Amino acid sequence: MSLTLAQFNDLSQEVAIAQLLTCCTSKSWAYKLADARPFVDVDALLTSSDAIWNKVQNDEANLLEAFDGHPQIGNVASLKEKYRNTQSSAAHEQSGANDAADEVLEALAKGNRDYLDKFGFIFIVFATGKSAQQMLDLLLARLPNDRATELANAAAEQNKITRLRLNKLLDNA
């Protein structure tokens, strides 16, 4: 569903929260952002979203709830589908996707499993426009981190994803 900002501002609280949960599955964030309506423009909504996220991310349960809204890419078959099926992807998301070697996809699947085993949550990264090799490089660079560092990294990436989804929700992408 794509809405104008005026339509979003006019949604019932329940429907607004449901729409926001499609952007980020942290209920605390969604409830607080819905409560902050009406917004004068999309920039005001994004600024409010950022401020609310900065507060709610201090509670690990909110972070994990948001991360749980993402599918884990844990097997080579799903990675091949993600990086090779470009028919429905936007042009900016296709860069390098068709060139993903099986070895890269296998390493990415293994890295995702290792990441989940080490940190207890899936690897969260703003993937738009990144090739499989770039994703693997980012994953391997972050894997040596401690859990607190990775919670912070994943929270920052989650916010980038949320902002993109808000823009798409509000027909502003």
TrEMBL record:
A family per Pfam: OHCU_decarbox
Pathway annotation: Purine metabolism; urate degradation; (S)-allantoin from urate: step 3/3
All residue ranges annotated as the Oxo-4-hydroxy-4-carboxy-5-ureidoimidazoline decarboxylase domain in the record: 9-167
GO process terms (BP): purine nucleobase metabolic process; urate catabolic process
Keyword Zinc set for record: no
Keywords: Decarboxylase, Lyase, Purine metabolism
Annotated EC: 4.1.1.97
Any one GO molecular-function label of the UniProt entry: 2-oxo-4-hydroxy-4-carboxy-5-ureidoimidazoline decarboxylase activity
Highest taxon, organism lineage: Bacteria
Catalytic activity of the protein: 5-hydroxy-2-oxo-4-ureido-2,5-dihydro-1H-imidazole-5-carboxylate + H(+) = (S)-allantoin + CO2
Protein name, as recorded: 2-oxo-4-hydroxy-4-carboxy-5-ureidoimidazoline decarboxylase
